[in-house]
Amino acid sequence: MAIKFFGTLGPSDITTTRTLLHETIPITGSILSGTYYEANPGASVFGGETNVKNYSHGMFQAVYDYPYLSSSANHIFDIAMGYSSTSVMSASTSVENAKKINMYNMFAQTLLGYTVSGAIEIPESDLIITDDDAQMREVFFVNFSRLLMKDQIKRGTFSISLITGSTNAIDLRGKTTLPITKLRDVSASNIAGTADCPAGDYGLLFNSPLTGAAQGVVFYQAGCAMITASMFATNSAAAASGRGDRENLDFTTNPDKPAGETYISISGALKSLPMSSSCDEFRRRVGNLSFNNTTELNSTVYFCRAPANKWNYSSNPTYTTGSKLRVKEVASDTPVSYITTVGLYNANNELLAVAKLSEPLKKDPSNEITLRVRLDF
Question: Fewer Cβ close by (within 10 Å): the C or N end of the chain?
Fold first, then answer.
């Protein structure tokens, strides 16, 4: 039978700690496009992927690591796109124009907030909120699931490789000669002014190695990456093929267009394709994506101290026999007890937590024991 001895914990016996745990999350392009590809029966054009869920509203698509109807599927991220009402893409003739503007505004106001005049802030490639230059008015959004990012994305670890240039969606993975642009948050360690951002810390995404202006932004606590659409209009390979005008560089091969009109520019895609189709084209250009997530582990540590002059006896009836201590063979021997369990009680003497020792600890007047009990939350 266990016997309880009580002691009071003071302020010096309790402390709190904060530990950040990191896990590398690699996402390969083959998962996002190609592994679960299904062709239309009897057709040569692209049919769809069973791990990508498109909704009837058509404003974003959800990507899974397995066919989404399976119970084993895990949600990876959502993809959306949009442009500002001040963008040259915005026109009454543009497909789903209002939806694209609303999606852009929703992300902008959530991540960046408002200007002093009450207007929605527009993301900039330098993210100096007040100078209104280098504005990113046409953007793809990658919104990561809580399952992947945990509490936040670790600064300086985000990387995404994007295939640029014209290509057919069916054989995208086989186009090894297409130019690839790798974006990384190389500025994460020296960026300042994040107090102006409602979504928390952010990092600008630059070409790796660092060249030119930023091509996007990653918001660490929000778990969202913004990629400017203009990066698909700077393909030197397409320029060398005779289509050097930035507005007419090839973004995709569209199987649905008539013969002789198979290519569509990034500006043409933003204007003439539905949001879900534009998301498809962006997703099929993701070569690799990786980052380290962060789990914040908060702990309260209780130091339960058993000094030399305490808890060396037990009031358990079996502790004595014939008025003699069972654990003593010689009368002059010191008393001894064994500690097996630590219980934490509140002020009303209600048991809140129990910690079991892996083996009993011997306690006598010649030693002191301090048991460190940690509660994680």
Answer: C
Domain spans in the chain, listed from the N-terminal domain onward: 21-294, 307-376
Task: Name the phi and psi angles at 192, rounded to 5.
Answer: -130, 170
- Rounded CA-CA distance 330/242 in Å is 102
State whether residue 344 is helix, strand or coil. Answer: strand
Torsion angle of alpha carbons 163, 164, 167, 169, nearest 10°? 50
What is the torsion angle, in degrees rounded to the nearest 10, for the CA atoms of residue 260, residue 263, residue 265 and residue 268?
70
Contact criterion met (CB below 8 Å) for 318 and 349 = no
Q: What angle do CA 316, 319, 320 make, to 5 degrees?
A: 120
Q: Which two tokens stand for residue 183?
A: 């974006």
d(Cα 213, Cα 215) in Å, to the nearest integer? 6
Q: The pTM is what?
A: 0.77
- Could you count the other beta carbons within 10 Å of the beta carbon of residue 355? 15
Query: What residues are paired with 193 via a beta bridge?
Result: none
